[in-house]
Specification:
Blueprint: E1 8-11, E2 17-22, E3 25-31, E4 35-42, E5 51-55, H1 58-62, E6 66-71, E7 78-84, E8 90-94, E9 98-100, E10 104-113, E11 115-120, E12 123-129, E13 134-141, E14 144-153, E15 168-177, E16 183-185, E17 188-190, E18 197-199, E19 205-206, E20 210-214, E21 220-224, E22 236-239, H2 250-254, E23 264-265
Parallel strand pairs: 8-14, 15-19, 15-20
Antiparallel strand pairs: 1-7, 2-3, 2-5, 3-4, 4-6, 7-11, 8-17, 9-16, 10-15, 11-12, 13-14, 13-23, 18-19, 18-22, 20-21
Length: 266
């Protein structure tokens, strides 16, 4: 099945200006004879479902907060857009407390920003998040840990309740509580650099499912599945991971992160 329509090659005539609105993210492009002018800005609402494409005015470029010029000795007729997982892990915190009873399991859907790669003649010139994320730190000290992105999530349990956002990655997290007491999900670490990107025929863009086993001792273990899991039907992989699975021990480190953990700061 085809990926979302914004992914792929977008040819422009010389001196043409074009804009893509993908939720909170707006990208503008101006093709010149031997260069491309690229600009972007971000709205405040990461849950925006806005999706539009069309000509852009010169004034629209002036309102952007990011811009570059990409030049080449030859003319390049098209700009290519790709979707990628984040370049750092994402710490997702549910908006409301989620409790899983003893010996029970639940699946939740976690939304996070996609990284939009801009390519000219197969060369990457920029990679931008579809919405702004704040930084957070996962580690016991400032010298021993990992810089991450922090993200709030509604952690819906039913896929129909999850809006289809134009440039959002959806991760299904299944949590198995094998302990004898209720387990509170305070936050979940998603090892995004080790995640692929998939597109399905409903317009959603996914990562692999993550599965968390809470053991009788209260400790937990995180695993990354091979596919998005239930909910994504007729899907195909459209981007490979940035790093090999569990490079740097991210999955092992995040096994302690699903509940409370004093290594999280921010």
């Amino acid at each position: 099945m085809p990926p979302p329509p914004w992914i792929g090659h977008h040819p422009l005539e010389i001196d043409a200006r074009h804009a893509w609105t993908l939720g909170a993210f707006e990208l503008l492009a101006h093709r010149r004879e031997l260069e491309w002018q690229l600009a972007a800005r971000w709205a405040d609402d990461p849950l925006s479902t806005a999706l539009a494409t069309g000509p852009a005015s010169p004034e629209a470029f002036e309102a952007c907060t990011w811009s570059i010029r990409a030049s080449n000795a030859k003319t390049i007729p098209a700009l290519e857009l790709r979707a990628r997982a984040a370049d750092r892990p994402v710490i997702a915190r549910p908006d409301t407390t989620l409790v899983i009873p003893p010996r029970a399991h639940a699946s939740i859907f976690l939304g996070s920003a996609a990284w939009i790669e801009l390519l000219l003649d197969e060369a990457l010139v920029a990679s931008l998040p579809s919405w702004r994320l704040s930084d957070t730190w996962f580690g016991r000290t400032t010298s021993d840990g990992t810089l991450c992105y922090a993200s709030r999530t509604r952690a819906r349990t039913s896929l129909p309740d999850v809006p289809v956002l134009p440039a959002s990655l959806l991760t299904r997290a299944t949590i198995f509580n094998g302990s004898e007491r209720a387990f509170t999900v305070e936050r979940i670490g998603i090892p995004m650099p080790s995640m692929s990107v998939f597109a399905d025929d409903s317009g959603r863009v996914w990562t692999e499912e993550i599965r968390v086993d809470v053991e009788s001792s209260g400790s937990s273990r995180t695993r990354v599945a091979d596919a998005p899991g239930d909910g994504a039907e007729r899907f195909e992989r459209i981007a490979e991971p940035r790093t090999p699975p569990d490079a740097g021990g991210l999955v092992r480190a995040f096994s302690a992160l699903i509940g409370g953990d004093d290594r999280w700061r921010g």
